[in-house]
Write a structure and sequence with these properties.
Chains A, B: Pathway: Cofactor biosynthesis; thiamine diphosphate biosynthesis; thiamine phosphate from 4-amino-2-methyl-5-diphosphomethylpyrimidine and 4-methyl-5-(2-phosphoethyl)-thiazole: step 1/1. Chains A, B: Mg(2+) binds at residues 70, 89. Chains A, B: Its cofactor is Mg(2+). Chains A, B: 4-amino-2-methyl-5-(diphosphooxymethyl)pyrimidine binds at residues 37-41, 69, 108, 137. The structure is a homodimer of 210-residue chains. The first copy, chain A, is globular, with a radius of gyration of 16 Å. The longest helix of chain A has 17 residues, at 45-61. An 8-stranded parallel β-barrel of chain A has the order 1-2-3-4-5-6-7-8, surrounded by 6 helices. The first copy, chain A, has a single domain (7-208), classed as Aldolase class I (TIM Barrel). Chain A has helices at 18-31, 45-61, 72-77, 92-99, 112-121, 145-154, 185-188, 193-208; strands at 7-10, 35-38, 66-69, 82-85, 104-109, 125-128, 159-162, 180-183. In chain A, helix 1 (18-31) runs parallel beside helix 2 and helix 1 crosses helix 8 (193-208). By secondary structure, chain A is of the alpha/beta class. Helices cover 40% and strands 16% of the residues of chain A. Chain A binds chain B through residues 44-47, 49, 70-74, 76-77, 87-91, 94, 98, and chain B through 44-47, 49, 70-74, 76-77, 87-91, 94, 98.
Chain lengths: 210, 210
């Protein structure tokens, strides 16, 4: 994670066909997303695995690291770059022990205490939010920009702001001086994900500039 | 799996409290179950992991191997003896590659073709069913005793009959000469799982005697 990766796409299949879903991810990669997290909560393990293989074919083509939400086994099965763990997923410490030092482990944290625990257990980066209300996550508890700022100041690893962020409102997180921004809808819900990604990435670079 | 392990308990929390659920598993271990599979389809990863830790404390006490349904990551996290994979879970071949040769991998197969695939991919045993209708599995497609027999005759690994089997009807699988019987309700749904297990194990030994 030494390379700066400011724009982080978290997927949502919405009601897209499989082909349309994959096409949006490809367009986002072409448009410049720096990280992709495949996030599935309802698929069977077999379907999650097969979808992850398809997505990884795309992300590999663009040399974009692929992270798998929640499931270490799926991440291992497709040789993903890493996993992203929420508070209801396996503990970061357990994941680190199973995956070793070289696999990326990200953690969703909503409070300073959660952030500090994730760092002490070996997380490589944090996702902090939801900054704004979001329709794509089951978990919609909000985190203030003040908390985001406090977390960013307290931890030595990259911090991504997440939750309802888009090109119009992303300026809101500028005071926190985060390392990047993670989005779902701003890319997945547009009919032109390529242009949306290009525009959003420029805004995110402005916002994260130190 | 060289040691004969004829009675295989697959768990179901039903509407039990956590304590009552664990108490039934403990009573089943005391009564003589030879294998336990923790099977959860709705818990978060964190809850599945924590429950698996609790169950493993019990099964370890009785030296009963614990298998985890579906989730390789949970199995790895609690150092379970192995995993059990259905047709909607990760392929056996992928699991074998990730887990190595020493971890037990079981597979649910409903047809001879599925059974032969599972064997060729490295399964250690097969669960075949449902022999009788069952209320505890989402999957209720039935498999005949004829298919069970054909599978048993075709594969070189232990075969367990599963699906609605209990002390009263388990004789039905005797013609198949299976290696063991797996049950859910016959143990989990009784108020005296210790006695139920003792009685059932004797019946299963009779039925599986060569």
């Amino acid at each position: 994670m030494a390379i700066k990766r400011p724009l982080y796409l978290v997927t949502d299949r919405l009601d897209l066909t499989n082909d349309a879903f994959l096409a949006r991810i490809k367009a986002a990669c072409q448009g410049g997303v720096d990280l992709v997290q495949l996030r599935e909560k309802t698929l069977s393990s077999r379907d999650y695995y097969e979808l992850a293989q398809q997505v990884k074919t795309i992300t590999d083509q663009f040399k974009v690291p692929l992270l798998i939400d929640d499931r270490l086994d799926i991440a291992l099965a497709v040789q993903a770059a890493g996993v992203h763990l929420g508070q209801k997923d396996l503990p970061v410490a357990v994941a680190r022990q199973l995956l070793g030092p070289d696999v990326i482990i990200g953690a969703t944290t909503k409070t300073l205490a959660q952030a500090q625990t994730a760092v002490s257990e070996g997380a490589d980066y944090l996702g902090v939010g939801a900054i704004f209300p979001t329709t794509t996550h089951v978990e919609t508890v909000q985190t203030s920009v003040e908390t985001l700022t406090a977390i960013k100041q307290a931890v030595p690893i990259p911090v991504y702001a997440i939750g309802g962020l888009n090109a119009t409102n992303v300026d809101a997180v500028k005071p926190a001086a985060v390392d990047g921004v993670a989005v779902v809808s701003a890319i997945m819900k547009t009919d032109d994900p390529f242009s949306a990604t290009q525009q959003l990435r420029q805004r995110v670079i402005d916002v994260t500039k130190k």
